[in-house]
Amino acid sequence: MASRGSDSPRFAYKADRLKPLRAFCQTARLGSVSRAAEALYVSQPAITLQLQALERDMGVRLLERSGRRLTPTREGQLLYDLARPLVEGIDGLSTAFRNQIGGLDAGELQVAAGSSTILYLLPKIVAAFRERHADVRLSLHNVTGASGLDLLRSDAVDLAVGSMLDVPGDLSYAPVYRFDPMLITPRDHPLASKAQLKLEDLSPYGLILPPRRLTTYRMVDLVFQQNRVPYTVALEVGGWEVIKQYVAMGQGISIVTAICLTDADRQRLAARSLAKYFPARSYGVVMRKGKYLSPQARAFVDLIQPDLFKRDYDETGHSER
């Protein structure tokens, strides 16, 4: 008979594997001992002791400093990938148990999304979810960029819906919808009826664009620069609804994503595809890697399907359903 403990190492720190693993996962995720301590509601020395005990038990260095952040070593990353789903599974056990008992007719769901996503993409999805799960308290957080990512990383929201160009390593992005870039003009504008539309044709007319710190402005600038086509910006203004209104007033032309064009817009605006020059914009689900999804969150994700919201545009800007 083999001696006791000969096949597995003994874990000495208070005979508890979960605490050091939880401390390690939070430190690796948040990048600092102090932030991990805040997240776990313990002192920084306690986190440090747990990390030291874990490194002694594993026999390798698990974390190293990179600038102001603590990042996993190669061995630490391997342990993080193994331990994270286990720790999160244990931490989410009581919630999962309650959800299984209560089913989908209870609980809450926190979703982060930008203004355009909430306004144009989510209404049908939210309506379908509310119809099926009326007792679930659904909260939509109107945030974009780094603010939305911070909510995901801190578990303040279950998931995010929106568009991403650069996906950080700790997040996953599943694009579901794709929308073409569209030129919008007043209906009586010369470009509205031009047979063959070229990028050079836009040069004489002032563009109405969102602020230059936003992705749309940077993408427009990049495409014109790459094609060596001059352009002018007549007006910078935030929000696609405002941009469409100013275009309809004859204050300029604009380049928007097809997601924002409604049937009412096509009564006052001409829309032409610019897919030949500009990349399509994708929208989908953003989640923290390894995060446990509640039944409510999974039900919401299941509703984010291409056939629920589909609009393709031909060269004249009319929808094809």
TrEMBL record:
GO terms for cellular component: cytosol. It comes from the Bacteria. The keyword Protein biosynthesis does not apply. The keyword Zinc does not apply. InterPro entries: HTH-type_LysR_regulators (IPR050950), LysR_HTH_N (IPR000847), LysR_subst-bd (IPR005119), WH-like_DNA-bd_sf (IPR036388), WH_DNA-bd_sf (IPR036390). GO terms for molecular function: DNA binding; DNA-binding transcription factor activity. Keywords: DNA-binding, Transcription, Transcription regulation. Residues 16-73 form the HTH lysR-type domain. Belongs to the LysR transcriptional regulatory family. This is DNA-binding transcriptional LysR family regulator.
